[in-house]
């Protein structure tokens, strides 16, 4: 039986899947600002590769075209897809594209609103719509006769067989349980069958304020086959300090799939962001790797330039560009959460 492989994000991409925001409830009070922030996000991607852009209907498509043209965005690289959705978080509701003997296959990991929200019935159709648009076969992910619920934001891979995830997201006994009763061994069997993973590294907890309850893409990211960046908090009084130190300790003891020691680069956290009484899950780890560029969320913070310099050293062959996410983070996610790469 042919084995699947989940390509690393830095491997050649055909484009990036996005969904233009239409649910103002995800950014209460900031929706008009969010639309322009999203236009800038699209503009940065479209300068380097295709944007597969979901819009809920033709009216929104026309509006978005006008916004893009006002911002001097060429529509040549924009491919519109009509599909009603509940939200715009394509990392989690979109399909994960893997390869079998060099051919692409879309996986449907049965998004269910992070096992938290009730309105996700429109989002569940996104994998089928995208697979049909790209003319790819779609595989329903299941295990022991049951559908498996996983989100792309919970999975970080190096393309060679190592995956990093968190216990808080996948194994918590009482909060946002995606798959009742599944153990580490069960998940690792799923990762092996559907993603070609031979080695899994388990971190413990996510950052404070994370609506997904522990997604890895706010914590730790591969920057090449044997190197990760991981966020650390310097303020010992901060609620993130202890859990991020625990993750750092685990990473320093970790190996890759071939037994090599994992190289670990520390990335700062931005200073605490509070809006309307809530602590927001701002993280520099939520960057998006493109073919020639890395887009990094920044937050009008003194640590912005430190994070950008660290990531520039990690990606010497790519431009590293900071993109303001001080408004986007009010939706509890930024660049990586909103996007999903489509490998060539």
From TrEMBL:
Metal-binding: present as a keyword of the record? no
In the record, what terms sit under GO molecular function? agmatine deiminase activity; protein-arginine deiminase activity
* Key words, A-Z: Hydrolase
Superkingdom per UniProt: Bacteria
Q: Quick check: keyword Nucleus in the entry?
A: no
| InterPro entries membership | Peptidyl-Arg-deiminase_porph (IPR007466)
A family per Pfam: PAD_porph
Set out the biological process GO terms recorded for this chain's protein.
Answer: putrescine biosynthetic process
UniProt protein name: Agmatine deiminase family protein
């Amino acid at each position: 039986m042919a084995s699947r492989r989940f390509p690393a994000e830095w491997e050649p991409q055909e484009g990036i899947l996005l969904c233009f925001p239409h649910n103002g409830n995800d950014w209460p009070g900031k929706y008009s600002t969010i639309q322009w922030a999203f236009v800038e996000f699209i503009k940065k991607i479209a300068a380097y590769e295709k944007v597969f852009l979901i819009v809920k209907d033709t009216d929104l498509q026309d509006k978005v075209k006008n916004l893009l043209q006002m911002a001097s965005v060429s529509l040549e690289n924009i491919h519109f897809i009509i599909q009603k959705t509940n939200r715009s978080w394509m990392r989690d509701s979109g399909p994960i594209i893997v390869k079998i003997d060099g051919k692409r296959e879309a996986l449907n990991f049965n998004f269910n609103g992070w096992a938290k929200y009730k309105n996700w019935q429109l989002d569940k159709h996104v994998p089928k719509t995208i697979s049909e648009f790209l003319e790819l076969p779609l595989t329903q992910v299941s295990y022991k006769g049951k559908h498996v619920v996983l989100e792309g934001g919970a999975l970080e891979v190096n393309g060679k067989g190592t995956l990093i995830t968190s216990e808080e997201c996948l194994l918590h006994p009482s909060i946002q349980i995606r798959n009742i009763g599944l153990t580490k061994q069960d998940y690792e069997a799923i990762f092996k069958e559907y993603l070609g993973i031979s080695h899994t590294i388990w971190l413990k907890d996510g950052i404070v304020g994370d609506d997904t309850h522990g997604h890895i893409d706010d914590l730790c990211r591969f920057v090449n086959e044997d190197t990760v960046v991981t966020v650390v908090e310097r303020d010992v009084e901060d609620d993130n300090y202890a859990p991020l130190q625990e993750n750092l300790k685990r990473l320093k003891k970790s190996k890759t799939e071939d037994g090599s020691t994992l190289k670990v680069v520390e990335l700062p956290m931005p200073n605490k962001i509070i809006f309307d009484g809530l602590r927001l899950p701002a993280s520099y780890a939520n960057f998006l790797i493109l073919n020639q560029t890395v887009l990094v969320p920044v937050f009008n913070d003194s640590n912005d330039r430190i994070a950008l310099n660290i990531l520039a050293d990690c990606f010497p062959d790519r431009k590293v560009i900071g993109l303001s996410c001080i408004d986007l983070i009010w939706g509890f996610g930024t660049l990586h959460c909103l996007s999903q790469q489509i490998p060539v």
